[in-house]
Amino acid sequence: MIVAIETTDQNGSKQLLSQTLNTKSGGETQTPFYIAVLASFAQLYQVNNLSGLANNTVRLVVFDEAFNKMDSERIVESVRLLRKMGLQAIICTPPDKLPDIMPLADRTLLVSKEGYQMHILSYGKEHAHV
Question: At 109, which helix (H) or strand (E)?
């Protein structure tokens, strides 16, 4: 099955995402991607099915380098959509995106590497002056 993603701009003009990839900013092309991915996970995990095993799933989504090309407003709306869909997420993101994501996160961890050792530290909101 081939699926085409259609985008609508603030003026109501519609275009296929594949036609706009080379003309739009990274954030403008990443936003429809995240919406499509989240919708796919919501369907996979049957988030609207409140009965039986469908209601008893982890509903885990993992994003690496998440939202790296998106502005603050788009990041916040994407995380809110993720939460509204009842999905749980592990979001690995560049440090400059922390101020946008951290207020919406239940827990934030900092992973640092020193030589061949990795350290995982709890990273509270008091540290968020990135």
Answer: strand 109-114
